[in-house]
Amino acid sequence: MKHVRFRDPNGATRRGRWHDDGTVSFGGESFDRDEVTVLPPCEPSKVVCVGRNYAAHADERDEALPDRPLLFLKPPNAVAAHGDTVRLPAGKERVEHECELAAVIGEQCRHVDADEAESVVAGYTCLLDVSNRDDQDRETNWVRGKAFDGAAPIGPVLADPEHVPDDAAVETYVDGSRRQRGTLDQLIFSVPELVAEITTYMTLEPGDVVSTGTPAGVAPLADGDEVRVRVEGVGSLVNGVEREGNA
Ligand code: MN
């Protein structure tokens, strides 16, 4: 099943179902997708992100492979929805796309063993890790680089785990041209390993997001682009791009 949060034509916020025929439904009512506003599929207290989790991406950034997951955070203000406009921070030249599979946590958890981690994952969605390299490359904690408003579009759906194959493709398209592609069997640290490592240090809450890193092919976004993150089995997260400060 694919779950979607949306605002219906009367303004009510619903947690309903996404259908592949272009409709969404809740409580016996069905709507065309363009009659509703798609919202982020969850409301995370934090987005826990993972850097350098595909060897080919670490390579293109000229960075060594980590011996444990490289973790960083995006706060709730970074979350944006399918259809929202990604705003490139004013004055930043190199703001790049990173397509990622994101796991959404279903229950409060801590000290989860890797072999039990699947039980705390509610499902999967797409995440666009919008990355401001101008600042990221000048700072250690990546707050300016990764945590700015709107830097984490997610969605459009929360797909039950069985939809996503172990070798699912994770891709970015810009204006219809493919820019990035990797497959989940290339992850250095798997979702269960990431959940185990993260919950050694912190409690994950229902709706929290664990984003699993990006494959090779990152490149700058430009004003007017349409960027699409596709995860096989989930679907496509689509966002326009606008430079901040444009009238
Ligand atoms: Mn990333």
Concise overview:
The chain has helices at 55-60, 133-136, 143-146, 191-201; strands at residues 2-7, 13-18, 23-26, 29-32, 37-39, 47-51, 70-74, 79-81, 85-88, 95-96, 99-105, 121-128, 131-132, 152-159, 169-174, 177-183, 209-211, 226-231, 235-243.
Structure in words:
- This protein has four helices and 19 strands.
- Helices cover 10% and strands 40% of the residues.
- It is mainly beta and 247 residues long.
- The protein folds into two domains: 1-38, FAH (SH3 type barrels); 40-243, Fumarylacetoacetase-like, C-terminal domain (Fumarylacetoacetate hydrolase, domain 2, Alpha-Beta Complex), CATH 3.90.850.10.
- The longest helix is centred in the C-terminal third of the chain and has 11 residues, at 191-201.
- Strand 2 (13-18) and strand 3 (23-26) form a beta hairpin.
- The protein starts with a strand and ends with a strand.
- The strands form three sheets. Strands 1, 2, 3, 4, 5, 6, 7, 8, 11, 12, 14 and 17 form a twelve-stranded mixed sheet that branches. The chain has a five-stranded mixed sheet with strand order 9-19-18-15-16, with no helix packed on it. A two-stranded antiparallel sheet has the order 10-13.
- It binds manganese (II) ion (MN).
- Manganese (II) ion binds at residues 49, 98, 100, 129, 213-214.
